Amino acid sequence: MRRLSLVVGAVAALAASGASAQSVNLTGTYRCIEMCRNGLMGSPAYITQNGENFNLTMETGESYRAWPDWNAPASRIWIDDRDESAVYSPDGIRIQFDDGRVWQRDFGPPPVVVYRR
Fold first, then answer.
1. CA dist 112 to 103, 115, 116, Å?
2. Cys bridge to 59: 17, 42, 43, 116, which one at CB 3.0-4.6 A?
3. Residue-range definition of the domain harbouring residue 83
4. Model pLDDT for residues 56-102, shown as the tens digit of each residue
5. E strand or H helix that includes residue 13
6. Alpha-carbon distance values, 60 to 43, 56, 74, 79 (Å)
7. Are 30 and 105 in contact (CB under 8 A)?
8. What is the CATH number of the domain that holds 64?
9. Nearest-5° angle of CA 34, CA 32, CA 43?
10. Residues 41, 44, 46, CA angle at the centre, nearest 5°?
11. How far apart are CA 93 and CA 32, in angstroms?
12. What is the pTM of this model?
């Protein structure tokens, strides 16, 4: 009976950690920097994250829904309508799609520095 309790506890712990494996918020504006579709190098792309679900707007303007890839939920997202996944860096700065496209987070222009005399 004790072994059964341990097994049930271990399974519950693994299930809980899999559900909360997403540790980085990918919401933001990105720029396509490599292998961009239709030659749209530098075009903006957007991700909006709501819990474990994602809304992606590609550099071409196409919109897709995505969610954590079951195979690697802490580092990949799955875009079902494109039958494609993408791996993201641990800090959420870069995303590389299976087709070779790379997005990099766009933080906007640097702040203006004002010097006073």
1. 25, 10, 13
2. 43
3. 23-105
4. 999 999 999 999 999 999 999 999 999 999 999 999 999 999 999 99
5. helix 2-19
6. 8, 11, 27, 16
7. yes
8. 2.40.128
9. 130
10. 135
11. 12
12. 0.74
